């Protein structure tokens, strides 16, 4: 029997789209929430809306443009170059972003009567984001429950998967082609395989190649 209702934190990218398919299998009712914080590409919001409509999932878009004021980084500022240096946080880092997003997603969950909040955060390919760590998610879950006197569960189906295993999960959910073609991960705003050059495309391609190579063996 499927569990009741979930809110999926949804960006239209590979990870959160895989989470959306996962949630659709797990829960009776699923809704998605996308945060608008002045992403480099308005296309990200369009892609998220398209996918939610495709999958018949009610879609909330919450305005988080204040993040722009607090954390001008390469993800939100068009005039900044995206860079990644060994051993440093990528310039896409917005400190505390998951704290903010998950808190608002849970407030929304309370309003729509959902007990589960699903997020694609992942500790395996840990790129240095402290609020992607499992221990942080567990701690936030406790705080949110105390703050609203409720019993929410934050689900993190990708927490311990690497990128290849995330493709495998999409495949198991019969969503491999869909995720491959319809999602947007690329920092340069190109759907599917993307520009092939930016760090997000390279990470995505590495995982995909690894998964496909493993399948052939
Ligand atoms: Zn790219």
TrEMBL record:
The protein's Enzyme Commission number: 6.3.4.20
Residues engaged in binding ATP: 10-20
Ranges annotated as spanning the membrane: none
Binding-site residues for Zn(2+), renumbered to this chain: 186, 195, 198, 201
SUPFAM superfamilies: Adenine nucleotide alpha hydrolases-like
General function of this protein: Catalyzes the ATP-dependent conversion of 7-carboxy-7-deazaguanine (CDG) to 7-cyano-7-deazaguanine (preQ(0)).
Family: Belongs to the QueC family.
Protein name listed in UniProt: 7-cyano-7-deazaguanine synthase
Species of origin: Bacillus spongiae
Gene: queC
